């Protein structure tokens, strides 16, 4: 595996050199993990001529929490609770004779940036920008295979929950049970805080589980994902509790389902991101829900639950093959509840069968 | 409750004026919560002449996730997925005619700082520094009462776990069960990722639960805390599994216990933070564990699990009354395991009975 990380760092190094920087200091946590294979909280990675160095904060309680970084990296654990890995990285770059260092200005705080400059006053600090985020967009087979497992785990956890009795249980308990099941099936943990909404809370994106109990006639919406080897799946489904859905529930479900399908079908290499948003959005606008649709229809997933590309009306850029994204439109009617349907898919060319659906739990409207 | 937040903002405003700034932009999440009563992820608070404004990001899926901020605040939810609350705050400050704006340079990234400056080029940006963090150090009665409940919840969750059968269960499952019980007892959630270590993993600070199962003869160490109304308790205990502890286990336990007691007993208003660290550290040094003690013996708790003051050998500053801290020394013997004992206490003057212990689970060495 070490070769994969070395190759990623080689690409970054080339890009830096092309931009006139001799070294780069990566401090975004997912970026460090992508390039080093491991990223203790607060770690920084110095990519420089010679051997790259992973700088880790001294563990607050004495134990270096380094989980197997790539073997060709030098790992340095800083002494004390106060050592700053990014500052130490700048110091090293200067000592190694680098004249300029590209840093991630969108991750470094102003105070740390100032500290970097003050330990290495002769070092010219430039902006690396989202170079690593861009490298992370298109996933390799190994990454997609981790996402596939992460999606399978979320499917399993959700499937098991549906077999249990739901009426009378609180949103909070259902969310905790889902998270326990994720771990049972091999996840490191949830990919993001599990959202469970019942009745008037259903269909609310990012709803934090409350003490409301599931009642007959409720919509129940669930959004859950697994973290498997750092890669994060996402699935969202909405169900009806009880014997049979009301007419307004069937109608709303059909509308959101049609929008979600339109979004999924728009996924193809070369398609502008905004067109995917548009494809789903027009369906909901036509149904009169234009002002109830959120600002975006989906987003990339990978080492972060929410990464590029963003599927929004103003998004720039086009989709590429092997980019995993969610398609997750929803509509919430204040006081009544709503529907959200959310899948993780990988963009694939038509010749390969089109978008690959990773989250395969049924999207029929189940009455539970 | 709104008056509490208004009074906190008034204090900050005074401090800003004294430092020559007309307005302040607070973007550290716990700081925003402290001053506004609520802090959706990414929110920023503009404290300025006239009405203060809480700026919230447009929810990625259309729902403003604002949980009841103080009533005298103006709440603005930004449109779209890309609106930056801090940038919008700077724009407002400029429009309102402020000549200078104090920002939290230790929370703002270089890129955002640049964006602030570019939307309001005439605004002079100064550094607010850790002014709000300093205001948060000494807690009021309401805050301490939330911490007391958070500690009680953690005590209850831990107590119930101890009554169940432990042998054969994995660290991961024990940690999940603890987190479920926290929520059962009224916590919003865990205060931090629950740590459970068995056998060779016991006593490792911040150990992430693995699939190792509890075995006869193991040390079992647990570190858990509850988030109650945003306030975060922390408790750590170490147990022995089986009939009776081995001699080395009793000896190590007694050493760590003596160190932890010495740290607790050193807590008093006016005591230098480093003296608390020293009091516990000398006990472990005398026992020959000097190089196995982590870089610090404890830390403040409140709206964050790990906040000022830090109890380290190089810490500056003295303790005050009504400052809640942990005292959590530990020793880990590689390959064998170790002991960690961790309490949350509130610094109180001798006249009031000395430090108030919030986490009251027994610290006797229990054989389970």
From TrEMBL, chains A, B:
Q: Which ranges carry the Creatinase N-terminal domain? A: 8-138
Q: Which InterPro entries match?
A: Creatin/AminoP/Spt16_N, Creatinase/aminopeptidase-like, Creatinase_N, Pept_M24, Peptidase_M24B
Query: What is the designated name of this protein?
Result: Aminopeptidase P family protein
Among the GO molecular function terms of this UniProt record, one is: aminopeptidase activity
| UniProt keyword terms in alphabetical order | Aminopeptidase, Hydrolase, Protease
**Pfam families on file:** Creatinase_N, Peptidase_M24
Please list the residue ranges annotated as the Peptidase M24 domain: 147-348
């Amino acid at each position: 595996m070490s070769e994969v990380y070395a190759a990623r760092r080689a690409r970054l190094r080339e890009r830096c050199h092309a931009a006139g920087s001799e070294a780069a200091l990566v401090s975004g946590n997912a970026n460090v993990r992508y390039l080093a294979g491991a990223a203790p909280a607060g770690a920084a990675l110095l990519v420089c001529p010679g051997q790259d160095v992973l700088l880790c904060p001294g563990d607050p309680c004495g134990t270096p929490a380094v989980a197997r970084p790539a073997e060709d990296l030098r790992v340095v654990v800083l002494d004390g609770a106060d050592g700053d890995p990014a500052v130490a990285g700048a110091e090293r770059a200067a000592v190694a004779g680098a004249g300029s260092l590209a840093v991630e200005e969108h991750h470094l705080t102003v105070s740390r940036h100032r500290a970097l400059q003050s330990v290495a006053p002769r070092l010219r600090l430039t902006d690396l920008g989202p170079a690593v985020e861009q490298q992370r967009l298109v996933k390799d087979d190994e990454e997609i295979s981790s996402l596939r497992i992460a999606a399978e785990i979320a499917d399993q956890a959700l499937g098991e929950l549906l077999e249990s009795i739901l009426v009378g249980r609180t949103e909070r308990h259902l969310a905790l049970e889902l998270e326990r099941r994720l771990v049972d099936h091999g996840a490191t943990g949830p990919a993001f805080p599990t959202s469970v909404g019942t009745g008037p809370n259903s269909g609310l994106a990012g709803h934090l589980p409350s003490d409301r109990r599931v009642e007959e006639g409720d919509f129940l919406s669930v959004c859950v994902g697994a973290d498997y080897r750092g890669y994060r799946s996402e699935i969202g489904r909405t169900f009806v509790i009880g014997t049979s859905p009301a007419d307004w529930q069937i109608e709303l479900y059909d509308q959101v389902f049609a929008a979600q399908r339109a979004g999924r079908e728009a996924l193809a290499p070369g398609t502008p991101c905004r067109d995917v948003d548009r494809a789903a959005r027009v369906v909901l606008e036509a149904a009169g829900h234009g002002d109830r649709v959120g600002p975006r229809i989906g987003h990339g997933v990978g080492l972060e639950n929410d990464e590029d590309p963003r599927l929004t009306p103003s998004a720039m850029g086009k989709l590429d093959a092997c980019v995993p994204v969610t398609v997750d439109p929803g509509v919430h009617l204040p006081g009544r509840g709503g529907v959200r349907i959310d899948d993780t898919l990988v963009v694939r060319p038509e010749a390969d069968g089109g978008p690959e659906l990773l989250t395969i739990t049924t999207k029929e409207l189940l009455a539970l």
